[in-house]
Amino acid sequence: MERFKPIPIGHEDFKTIIENGCYYVDKTLMIRELIDQQSKVSLFTRPRRFGKTLNMSMIQRYFEKTEENNSHLFEGLKIAEYPEYMAYQGQYPVITLSLKGMKQPSYQYAFEMYKQLISHEIWRHRDIFQSKDIAQDNRQRLESICDGTAEDSAYINAIRLLSDCLHIVHRKKVIILIDEYDVPLENAYFRGFYDEMVDLIRSAFESALKTNNSLEFGVLTGCLRISKESIFTGLNNLKVYSLSTPDFSEYFGFTRKEVEAFAAAYHLESRLDDIKDWYDGYLFGETEIYNPWSIINFIADARGDWHALIRPYWSNTSSNDIIHQLVNEGNEETRKQIEELLNGGFVDKPIYEDITYRNVKINSDYIWSFLLFTGYLKQIESRLEEEIIYSKMVIPNREVKSIYRTTVMQWFEEKVNADSREDLFEALISSDVLRFEELLGDWLDESISYYDGKESYYHGFLSGVLSGFKGYTVKSNRESGLGRPDILILERRRHQLAIIIEIKVAPKFGQLAAKCDEALRQIEERNYEAELVEDCYQKIVKYGIAFYQKSCMVKMQ
Q1: What is the mean pLDDT of residues 387-391?
Q2: What is the residue extent of each domain of the chain?
Q3: Which regions of 345-481 does DSSP assign to beta strands (E)?
Q4: According to the model, what pLDDT value does residue 480 have?
Q5: Average pLDDT estimate for 240-253
Q6: 142 closest CA partner among 157, 133, 60, 101
Q7: 158 torsion bin: left (phi>0), alpha (psi -120 to 50), beta (else)
Q8: DSSP H helical segments within 430-511, as ranges?
Q9: Which among 443, 541, 530, 527 is positioned nearest to 491, based on CA atoms?
Q10: The pLDDT of residue 162 is above 50
Q11: Which of 5, 315, 512, 539 could form a disulfide with 403 if both were Cys (CB 3.0 to 4.6 A apart)?
């Protein structure tokens, strides 16, 4: 059996991936571009799981001066072809922090985690404690932060203090890397302590990145560019590389050529159409990009089973809170636009790059910018109108569409639990057809739905609405007679009432009645009541229900 390179699922340390001989999609020319751009502070905004952390690790391993020479890590990679750039390798002290761990349930816990991150990074550079070049008071301040005896205020300025000390000891300015800077901000927004977190991040960033004479350059990553007014106040040396920026566009996520090479390395060329359908669809600058996390996971599954089912992977790792809020708080117009997206259409909205989480409640249009920047929408066209950028956006691929659909069904379940359904259910079991049809129509009007010509959506919707009532059992697609009725509702104890529901989708509004009749004929022709008669149900009611988009018709027999 052919031996393939290991696939580094979950590995975010560049050194570990290279030294373990794992498959690596070469992004090292990003280093060359960083050197050429000479931006004092660069912010890269990309969706979750698009390679930001691995790239930050690569940058650290490239530039950081360590006792062990790390140049061997880059042998055979693209950057090694440029000796003039390799001269920068291993020449700088590097401070690196990932704020992902600050996703905590309260500000107190988040700040404690921040203190641990700072302490750990200072301890990583503990060799400077022995240097005679460090002033005694600065050494004591660093040591107190490490051992946890420092005042809380000491941690705000700790990155700046560490950079000054590293600069003095190594006589080289410092590179500062801050990964996933906006994770604690998003978490704080949904947890209710956003203002406190904004104050913390703003203070730490200003100290470390603004007028810091010990700074060679800084790199930050995140999903969003939080507005200058809230986080980057006065940070005039910041260069933002967003989804629409052509520079660095190929270094986050996989390009088509990289995906083709990856698939070929594991003899999976025959699955490229599936891969494109599910995981392609992103556009960074002018570069077509595939979701790297999903590609890695799919190839890992398919290398041992070439017929492995393709499925969503990104949904299990990416926060869906922002979509959940859109669904729950959106007005009727917003719900219609989600339906349009689910049905293959587009939305045309203004895009705001300088935003804050609190803006979502101020202007409902801000939510579309969030969805674009976090990978849930793809920009297909843009234009400038009165100094505002407008973008036409679509759902990128089948994987993301599956997330929308899952979220929509979850919203239905929550709505079912929150709203009274007793009138609807009572009309059903009392055979009040007109009342049941009226109430069912109201539910459809208030819902978010997608119509893809299948009954599965309406089936799931109706099963959810009718489930959970005391004394009754709801069964879907249960074997009975010569086939499976869509829904059975059975009175549990006395076996007095059984309801058979068959669902049809009409291609046009005017065919609703005919589809109801077709549903009732199917119940009779396939003898769906056979098992119910054997179980001695005293009353069996048959419903044919037809749907056309948000319209419905109900007939009973």
Answers
A1: 87
A2: 14-241, 256-316, 321-400, 419-556
A3: 347-351, 378-385, 388-394, 472-476
A4: 46
A5: 93
A6: 157
A7: alpha
A8: 433-446, 456-466
A9: 541
A10: yes
A11: 315
The answer to whether the CB of 389 falls within 8 A of the CB of 351 is: yes
> How much is the pLDDT for 225?
76
Please indicate whether residue 226 or residue 12 has the higher confidence score (pLDDT): 12
Share of the chain above pLDDT 90, in %: 61
Give the pLDDT confidence of 464-492 residue by residue, as tens digits.
Answer: 888 888 899 998 875 444 578 899 999 98
Query: The domain 14-241 is classified under which CATH number: 3.40.50, 3.40.1000, 2.40.50, 3.30.70?
Result: 3.40.50
**Residue 150 above 90 pLDDT?**
yes
**How far apart are alpha carbons 184 and 188 in whole angstroms?**
6
- φ/ψ of 351, rounded to 5, equals -115, 130
Q: Is 74 exposed, middle or buried (0-12, 13-18, 19+ CB in 10 A)?
A: buried
CA angle at 413 for the pair 329 and 520, rounded to the nearest 5° = 120
Amino acid letter at 174? V
How many CA atoms lie less than 13 Å away from 462 in the CB half-sphere?
31
pLDDT average, residue stretch 535-547: 94
For residue 287, the SS3 value is: strand
The 10s digit of each residue's pLDDT in 420-438 is 688 899 999 999 999 999 9
Do 508 and 548 contact (CB within 8 A), yes or no?
A: yes
Rg of the chain over CA atoms, in angstroms? 29
At residue 404, the 3 state secondary structure works out as helix
What was the pLDDT predicted at 49? 92
Measured CA angle at 447 (ends 444, 448), to 5 deg:
120
Angle CA 304–307–312, to nearest 5: 90
Q: What is the pLDDT of residue 267?
A: 93
Sheet holding 539-548, edge to edge: 472-476, 487-491, 497-505, 539-548, 551-556
Chain-centroid distance of CA 509 in Å reads: 37
- Return the minimum-mean-pLDDT range out of 16-25, 54-63, 350-359: 350-359
Q: How far is CA 113 from CA 48, 101, 117, 305, 451, in A?
A: 21, 7, 6, 41, 46
Please give the full DSSP string across 504-526, using - where no structure is assigned: EE-SSGGGHHHHHHHHHHHHHHT
* Angle 175-374-345 from CA coordinates, rounded to 5°: 150
User: What b/e string do you get for 145-184 counting C-beta neighbours within 10 Å, with b at 16 or more?
Assistant: bbeeebeeebbbbbbbbbbbbbbebbeebbbbbbbbbbbb
Q: What are phi and psi of 38, to 5 degrees?
A: 55, 35
Q: What's the pLDDT score for residue 409?
A: 65
> How many angstroms separate the CA atoms of 423 and 434, rounded?
12
SS3 233: coil
Residue 50 DSSP one-character state: S
**What pLDDT does 86 receive?**
96
Q: What is the pLDDT of residues 339-381, one digit of tens each?
A: 889 888 999 999 887 766 666 665 667 788 888 888 999 998 8
Whole-angstrom Cα distance, residue 215 to residue 201? 18
**Identity (one letter) of the amino acid at 399?**
E
